[in-house]
Q: What sequence folds into this?
């Protein structure tokens, strides 16, 4: 019976680990949702923050976050699609493939604070752009390029060779094949990756806090080269005064909004991925 | 006309590929150039115990120690918990629910770290302080616990994939020989999933090392190795928290700044090495959620 | 679904000579009815062959006997299976029944060979070492005995500690049979194992 | 698909040109969190009368203010200490001009639990010993038997410079007895309130029910409370000026903004924030 005892013990350990994890993770979510829900109302969402963010709302922080990630989307999407096309259509040499994979996975693994430092040195100081919306968007764009490249490459390489060959057989040149056959499929993968990337980018604090955001007094940036204010850095400011109940309340509210934005992006990515049809089934 | 467009298109593809390939080299190059002053001026003096910029002392050992200890402890907590939970989701839980659990975990894996930081300041540091009767709950241990919770979803979902990908036939053969469930899992499933699990742990290790915001808010930010050296309930400092707090304070092109960048470069090199090694282990690769 | 019954010659024998009997046994996978109202009696110390077209439910039936099917998604059953062991008779599908013990009594060899990524030596001992504490000497003896039984000993005796995956498919399948024999089951269920054997060596049954 | 892309490009183009066309002048300020509430409230009021001026205020500490101004990334630096000789030498092209806008005291603060237990005043020497690590328990200074949690600030913070200059004699002195290093006044206030045996340094404006200001026992035995009155008459030993710095004499809107803070209307904001105005 010793074996049976061991078996039950093992199963009990697995069950308790799973229960523990569920408890921890649902604690996290419920804390944010319950505390955040108390704060969120139209007034909170539509007014600007006062007194270090402890009073007022988060209207311009939301606008700032949207500006940052839309800038990132515009910059990263074309570059990433180009890279994915190159990987799937031009690079046939396995060594080159391996090198490009290493570069992309490497870029994906770089800690976010390093991107912040890179932006601070290269853009803010070396190119002297100042702390600005534009630099923040560039850095976030660099961060999400790998996600988009991998996702679009995956959907491009899933197109059966037959489709390419029949297109060539009709006398289409390479560029025509790319735009008519490869891209329509690749775009969906790219959009999936884009949403996943943006979900990650919208919550990033370390890369933007030195290079793109200002503390207060920022409304809409007048140009590309002015600072914005963003949700994550706002939460950072509020978290540093966590004993001020009003500030903490606002921090929960801002967190809930941030998480909702993150969930919307993630879920749309999942949705697109599920509804994505391979070219052969259209 | 068509040939012209084709040329432009090819140019676009090549340029964008070059951009995305060169960025990582550019980052490495920029960091190296900026840390050159510190390496040149400091040399081995960088690896000492005292960090005091006004006196030109830039010892990074306390930060290296902090990063190492925080990461190791968080893995010690998260890896067993994560693997057992992954065994639960892939082997014990009814397959019907697995997809929901997986989606939930993958969503959790992406929650922004600043929110973990907020929860850490508002709850964990207070709890740790009260639990151990400390003056302040901002300790290495608090940071490690918070970090372990952050990497838990990543570990669970990657290990679950690894275990799930073990072909069903191994389980059936082992069962057919009269093995109990725990023997089936321990002796036949886990050894086959081993390499993927190692890859998952390495990826989680990389993520934990590079985590900034959550750690920065709860670790206490003292540039000292605690006494005695194994006292985890003392404040400390990691490379990332040091960078997050101090990089904007140091003047550009000073030795101080250069020493900070040097730390960043060490961190980057370690994390890149881990990523490449992990990629060798994870043959299935190409996951989007890490 | 073709009813298998029609393809099997029922041999009326005495009850006490029966080792396994299936009574009115049904299997469903989700909504598909894979096995319909199946009766059979397997005799002790006999080889019973079941022949039928693919998809007729042969594997389903054989996998129901030692309850390997339990964890298959959507599996439901009706009816009962009796197993007459050394001392007791059991209803296989009974709450609280020690299914692991049952599986040491009813061994099974699958259609495709499946060796664990370990040495040949450890593969033979894979099942038996959990049920019995073995001395080193005994282990050596069990390995040799069972490998000889599947005519593999001469081929691999000099490289017992190499990975089992270095064997050919046919050798791997014989290794799988040896692994099952090592547990000393009363019954062995063979799910078309010969389709993987490169030649047909003589298989002495215990 | 093509139409989508073209329209996106047009939109992007419109945003960029539109932003540049509106040419709003922006004044960037950064620096000490001590000065921050004054400047950011003043900026809000200033904008009521000067609609076309945009003033952005960033935190970071006095050191950050000086560095950013030195690198000419901002127009106004906010500092709560004097510029050191080293910093002036570091930026030879920049001519730092200081503009005092008020006065503040840096007060040694303790958790309310310790204050209620009877510790209401300490000598400078006792505080110095705590930060040097020579006094480690509150009972050594007549309080309850609890270990002291000494909260320090990041090196470049103005509050720390002023405090350490008086307490340890050198504005960049290391504090080996410190148990925690934090940044802004807000963060330090939070940590001291969360603990029940902490000592720290805060600007006078951050003292509240959870974080109590200590009185200081002078060498002649006189006890000086951190009241506005004592700060105004100069009795409280750790006081400082709140300063704005610019590169050269300010011009145009920057000058108007600084003049506004110095005006009676602006000084009212200084008083509301808990500081001493220039007129007192």
A:
């Amino acid at each position: 019976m010793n074996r049976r005892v061991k078996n039950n013990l093992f199963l009990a350990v697995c069950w308790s680990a799973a229960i523990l994890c569920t408890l921890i993770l649902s604690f996290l979510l419920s804390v944010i949702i319950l505390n955040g829900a108390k704060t969120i109302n139209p007034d909170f969402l539509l007014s600007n923050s006062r007194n270090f963010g402890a009073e007022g709302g988060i209207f311009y922080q939301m606008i700032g976050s949207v500006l940052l990630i839309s800038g990132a989307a515009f910059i990263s999407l074309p570059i990433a699609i180009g890279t994915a096309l190159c990987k799937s259509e031009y690079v046939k040499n396995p060594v080159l493939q391996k090198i490009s994979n290493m570069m992309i996975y490497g870029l994906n693994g770089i800690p976010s604070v390093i991107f912040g430092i890179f932006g601070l040195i290269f853009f803010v100081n070396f190119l002297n752009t100042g702390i600005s919306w534009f630099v923040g968007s560039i850095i976030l764009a660099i961060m999400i390029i790998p996600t988009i490249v991998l996702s679009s490459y995956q959907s491009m390489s899933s197109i059966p060779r037959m489709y390419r060959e029949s297109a060539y057989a009709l006398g289409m040149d390479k560029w025509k094949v790319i735009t008519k056959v490869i891209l329509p499929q690749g775009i969906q993968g790219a959009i999936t990756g884009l949403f996943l990337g943006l979900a990650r980018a919208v919550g990033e604090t370390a890369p933007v806090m030195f290079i793109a955001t200002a503390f207060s007094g920022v409304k809409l940036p007048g140009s590309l080269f002015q600072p914005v204010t963003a949700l994550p850095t706002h939460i950072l400011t509020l978290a540093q005064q966590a004993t001020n109940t009003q500030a903490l309340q606002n921090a929960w509210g801002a967190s809930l909004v941030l998480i909702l934005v993150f969930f919307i992006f993630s879920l749309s990515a999942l949705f697109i991925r599920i509804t994505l049809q391979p070219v052969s089934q259209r | 006309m068509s040939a012209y467009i084709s040329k432009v298109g090819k140019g676009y593809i090549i340029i964008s590929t070059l951009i995305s390939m060169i960025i990582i080299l550019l980052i490495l190059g920029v960091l190296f150039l900026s840390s050159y002053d510190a390496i040149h001026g400091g040399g081995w003096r960088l690896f000492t115990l005292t960090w005091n910029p006004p006196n030109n002392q830039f010892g990074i050992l306390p930060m290296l120690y902090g990063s190492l200890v925080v990461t190791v402890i968080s893995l010690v907590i998260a890896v067993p918990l994560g693997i057992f939970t992954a065994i639960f989701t892939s082997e014990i839980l009814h397959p019907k629910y697995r997809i929901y659990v997986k989606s939930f975990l993958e969503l959790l894996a992406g929650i922004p770290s600043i929110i973990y930081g907020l929860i850490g300041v508002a709850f964990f540091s207070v709890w740790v302080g009260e639990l151990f009767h400390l003056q302040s709950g901002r300790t290495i241990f608090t940071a490690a616990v918070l970090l372990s919770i952050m990497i838990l979803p990543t570990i669970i979902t990657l290990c679950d994939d690894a275990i799930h990908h073990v072909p069903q036939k191994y389980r059936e053969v082992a069962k057919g020989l009269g093995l109990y469930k725990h023997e089936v899992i321990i002796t036949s499933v886990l050894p086959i999933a081993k390499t993927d699990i190692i890859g998952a742990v390495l990826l989680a290790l990389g993520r934990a090392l590079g985590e900034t915001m959550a750690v920065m808010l709860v670790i206490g930010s003292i540039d000292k190795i605690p006494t005695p050296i194994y006292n985890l309930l003392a404040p400390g400092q990691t490379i990332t928290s040091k960078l997050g707090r101090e990089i904007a304070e140091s003047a550009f092109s000073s030795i101080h700044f250069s020493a900070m960048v040097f730390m960043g470069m060490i961190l980057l090199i370690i994390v890149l090495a881990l990523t490449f090694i992990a990629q060798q282990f994870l043959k299935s690769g190409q996951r989007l959620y890490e | 679904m073709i009813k298998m019954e029609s393809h099997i010659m029922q041999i009326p024998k005495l009850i006490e000579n029966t080792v396994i009997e299936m009574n009115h046994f049904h299997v469903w996978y989700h909504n598909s009815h894979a096995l319909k109202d199946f009766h059979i009696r397997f005799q002790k110390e006999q080889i019973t062959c079941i022949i039928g077209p693919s998809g007729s439910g042969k594997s389903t039936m054989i996998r129901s006997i030692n309850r390997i099917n339990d964890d298959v998604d959507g599996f439901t059953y009706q009816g009962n299976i009796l197993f007459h062991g050394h001392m007791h008779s059991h209803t296989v599908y009974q709450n609280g029944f020690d299914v692991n013990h049952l599986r040491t009594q009813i061994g099974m060899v699958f259609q495709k060979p499946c060796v664990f990524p370990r040495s040949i030596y450890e593969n033979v001992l894979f099942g038996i070492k959990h049920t019995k504490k073995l001395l080193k000497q005994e282990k050596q003896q069990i390995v040799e005995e069972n490998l000889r039984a599947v005519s593999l000993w001469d081929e691999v005796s000099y490289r017992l500690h190499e990975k089992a995956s270095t064997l050919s498919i046919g050798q791997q399948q014989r290794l799988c049979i040896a692994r099952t024999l090592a547990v000393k089951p009363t019954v062995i269920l063979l799910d078309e194992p010969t389709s993987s054997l490169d030649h047909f060596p003589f298989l002495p049954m215990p | 698909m093509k139409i989508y892309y073209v329209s996106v490009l047009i939109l992007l183009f419109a945003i960029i040109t539109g932003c540049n066309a509106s040419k709003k002048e922006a004044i960037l300020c950064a620096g000490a969190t001590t000065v921050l509430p004054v400047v950011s409230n003043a900026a809000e009021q200033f904008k009521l009368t000067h609609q076309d001026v945009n003033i952005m205020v960033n935190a970071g500490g006095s050191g950050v203010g000086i560095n950013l101004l030195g690198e000419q990334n901002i127009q106004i630096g906010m500092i709560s200490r004097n510029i050191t000789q080293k910093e002036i030498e570091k930026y030879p092209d920049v001519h730092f001009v200081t503009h005092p806008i008020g006065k503040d005291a840096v007060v040694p603060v303790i958790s309310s639990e310790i204050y209620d237990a009877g510790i209401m005043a300490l000598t400078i020497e006792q505080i110095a010993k705590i930060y040097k690590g020579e006094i480690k328990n509150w009972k050594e200074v007549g309080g309850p038997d609890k270990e002291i949690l000494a909260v320090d600030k990041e090196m470049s913070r103005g509050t720390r410079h002023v405090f350490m200059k008086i307490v340890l004699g050198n504005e960049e002195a290391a504090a080996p007895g410190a148990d925690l290093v934090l940044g802004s006044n807000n963060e330090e206030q939070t940590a001291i309130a969360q603990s029940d045996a902490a000592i720290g340094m805060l600007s006078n404006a951050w003292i509240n029910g959870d974080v109590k200001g200590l009185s200081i026992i002078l060498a002649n035995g006189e006890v000086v409370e951190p009241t506005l009155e004592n700060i105004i008459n100069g009795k409280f030993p750790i006081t400082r000026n709140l300063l704005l710095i610019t590169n050269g004499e300010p011009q145009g809107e920057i000058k108007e903004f600084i003049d506004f803070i110095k005006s009676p209307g602006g000084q009212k904001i200084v008083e509301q924030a808990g500081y001493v105005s220039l007129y007192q």
